[in-house]
Q: What sequence folds into this?
């Protein structure tokens, strides 16, 4: 632990610029650069908004074993206020994104519903038959094997069993509502394209880093088998 702190001290107290560090530099410099980069990279949302000079001053003061110029209570208050301000800002941005995505999705679905071959269910789910067959259809309680590709309205692919070249198996009771409803319309062997409104997908929460709040989703699905 003391050895690691010594390496960090060398890094932060050095007058060398990061651009001078490469794989020919001393081990201490390479390790110091690597730890500094990793710390900032893993906390980029925090570091991009703080005073780096103040951060280094606090770091060096603690490393030297000197008393802090702020009390523990003051530091706790400052960090708490910063966190609250950051969360408030993030919430405002999230709400704006949700409103924008909802408006964009509604406009898209309204225009899409008027296109030839598009069918709309009572829930608002839209679909287009790409390949029709006469075969058994699954139930809401069924488990199915499918090939699929999911896209956003800008055609960004966020998931694809086709690209993985590996069919997926799902219980229709455990997927988004648009899938539960839509796949029940499909005979085995058919291929459908679904246009799923946000309220039948991930709604205001979104999913992961790619599917934002209130996102309308497009899925191409081929029903390979019913596994009941």
A:
């Amino acid at each position: 632990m003391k050895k690691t702190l010594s390496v960090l001290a060398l890094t932060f107290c050095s007058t060398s610029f990061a651009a001078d560090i490469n794989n020919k530099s001393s081990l201490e410099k390479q390790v110091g650069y690597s730890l500094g980069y990793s710390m900032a990279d893993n906390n980029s949302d925090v570091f991009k908004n703080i005073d780096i000079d103040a951060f280094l001053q606090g770091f060096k003061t603690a490393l030297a074993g000197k008393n802090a110029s702020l009390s523990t209570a003051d530091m706790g208050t400052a960090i708490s206020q910063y966190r609250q301000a950051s969360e408030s800002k993030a919430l405002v941005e999230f709400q704006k994104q949700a409103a924008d995505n909802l408006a964009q999705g509604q406009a898209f679905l309204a225009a899409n519903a008027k296109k030839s071959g598009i069918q709309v269910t009572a829930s608002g789910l839209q679909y287009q038959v790409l390949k029709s067959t006469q075969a058994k259809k699954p139930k809401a309680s069924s488990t199915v094997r499918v090939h699929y590709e999911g896209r956003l309205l800008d055609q960004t692919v966020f998931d694809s069993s086709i690209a993985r070249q590996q069919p997926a198996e799902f219980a229709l009771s455990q997927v988004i509502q648009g899938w539960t409803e839509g796949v029940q319309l499909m005979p085995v062997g058919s291929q459908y394209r679904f246009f799923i409104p946000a309220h039948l997908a991930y709604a205001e929460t979104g999913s992961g880093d790619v599917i934002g709040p209130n996102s309308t989703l497009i899925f191409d699905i081929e029903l390979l088998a019913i596994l009941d």
Q: What stands out?
A: The chain has a mean pLDDT of 89. DSSP finds seven helices and seven strands in the chain. The longest strand covers residues 217-226. Residues 72-112 form the longest helix (41 residues).
